[in-house]
Design a protein that fits this description.
By secondary structure, this protein is mostly helical. The protein has one domain (7-394): Sodium/glucose cotransporter (Up-down Bundle). It has helices at 7-36, 40-45, 52-79, 84-100, 102-111, 117-125, 131-161, 167-216, 219-228, 242-252, 262-269, 274-305, 315-323, 326-364, 370-394, 399-423, 429-449, 458-475, 481-488. The protein is globular. Residues 1-5 have low confidence and may be disordered.
Amino acid sequence: MNIILTMTTAHLLTYITFGVYLILLLGIGIWGDRRFGRSYKGFIAADKSLGGWVSAISASASSESAWVMLGLSGLGYTKGFAGYWAALGCIIGFVVTALLVIRQLRASSENLESLTVSDFIEARLGDRLGVLRVVSAIVIAVFMTVYVIAQFIGSGKQMAGMGLLTYEQGVLMGAVIIGIYVIIGGYAAVCWTDLIQGILMAVVMIIFPIVGLVVVGGPGAVLDDLSRNNLGFFVGGEGLSWAAIGFIVAQLGIGTGYLGMPHSIVRYINVRNDREARRAALVSVSWSVFVLLGAVSLGIVGRLAVPGLEDPETILPHFTAMYFHPLIAGVVLAAVMAAIMSTADSQLLMAATVVIHDVVLRLSGRQWDEEKRILAIRIVLGVLAMLAMGLALLDPKVIYTFVLLAWGALGSAFSPAIILALYWPRFNRWGALASFTAGPILMVVWTQFLDLESTDGLWPAFLLSLVAAIVTSLLTPPPDPELWRVAKKS
C-alpha cells in the first residue's frame, strides 16, 4: 500500500494523532486529581468506587505491557506457531485468576478493610510487627522499578522503529508523559487511562493480524513460509523432543504470575462490589484471548509482510509504517504506548504507594495528614520515574527477557502467598515471609549468576516459593483462627 506523502507530512500527521491521545491522558489525570485527589483513600484506591469493566481492562492492560505488543509479537516472528504457547500460558493465568482470585480476594479484602495487597496480607495473617509489609514493599519496589525500565525501553524502541524519534528521545518522552499524569491523578487516573489503553490494544491486535493476512496473500502463504522455515509446528521445527517440551513448559509458566501480580490484583481489591467483581472476571479473560493470540498472529504474518527484521520486537512499528496511513500510524503508536503506559503507570503508583504506605508510615509510627501522605507519594513517583528512565537510557535490553525477570520474581513472591491466604487457614506470616523471599532470590540467581533463560526459571521459582510457604507454615505455630473467620465471613 503506497501512501503518497512526504516524510515530513507523514510524521506530522502521526505526531498530531498521537498528540491528541496524550492530551486526553493528561486530561484524565487532571480529572482524577479533582475527583479523587483530595483524600488519601481517593488517591491510592479511588474510594473503592470503580466498576468491573474499568477494573478488569485496567488490570489486564497493566499486566501485559510492552511485552505483549512488542515482545510477544516478536516471539511469533521468530518462533512461528510455537509462540502460541506463551499466549496460552498467559490466557491460562487469566482464567485461573478469574476463577480463584478475583471475587474471593475482593470479598476477603472488604472484610479486612484492605486497600492494598500489603494491607490484605498483613490483616489476613495478623502481622502486628509489620515485617511482611516491609519485606513485600522491598520486593515490589525493586522489581516494579525493573519492570518500569522495560516499559521505557519499549517506548524508545517503538519511537525509533517508526522513525519518529531516536531511542533516547522515545525513552524520555514516555517517562515524562507517564510521570506527569500519574503524579497528578493517582489511582483513578491510572485505571481510567488504562481502560482506554486496553481498548486500544485490543482493537490493534484484532485488526492488524487480519490486515496482515490480506497483505501477504492469505493463510496459505503464511503456512508455506512457516513450513519452509520449520516453524509450522506447535512443538517446534524439530518435532516433539525434550527441548520442545522444555520450551512449552517454560512458556506455560508465564501464567503463574497472574494470580498474585500486585499492580494488577490491587484492582480487584478495590472493585466496587461482588457483582462488578464477577463482571471483571469475564471481561479480563475475554480481553486476554483477543490481545494475546492477536499479538503472536501479528508476528507470524509479519514474517512475510516485513521480512528480514534485525530486531523482531519492532515488527509492529515497522508493519504500521509500511502499510498504514500516518493517521492510523498515530493510533497504533498510541496503542503501543498505551501498553507501555498502562503497565508503567500502575507499577510506578504501586511502588510509590508501598514505599510510603507500607514502609515510611509504618516505621515512622506517625499519623501524617492526608495532604502530606499524597505529596510524599507524588515525590516518590517522580524519583522512581527518573531512576527507571536513567537506567533505560544506559542499558537497553531485550524487552521479553527483562520483563520476565521482574514477572518471575513478583509472581513467585506473591502468587503462592495470595492463593494460600485465600484458601488455607493454616497459612501464617512465616510462610508468607518464605514465599516473599525464596522465589525472587532464585529468579535473580537463575538469570544474573547462572545466566539461564528467564522463562526456564518461572516454574522453579513459583514452586520453590509455594513449597517454602507450605513447609514453613507447618513448622511454625499456627495463626489465630479468628483471622480466618474474619476474612471469610459472609
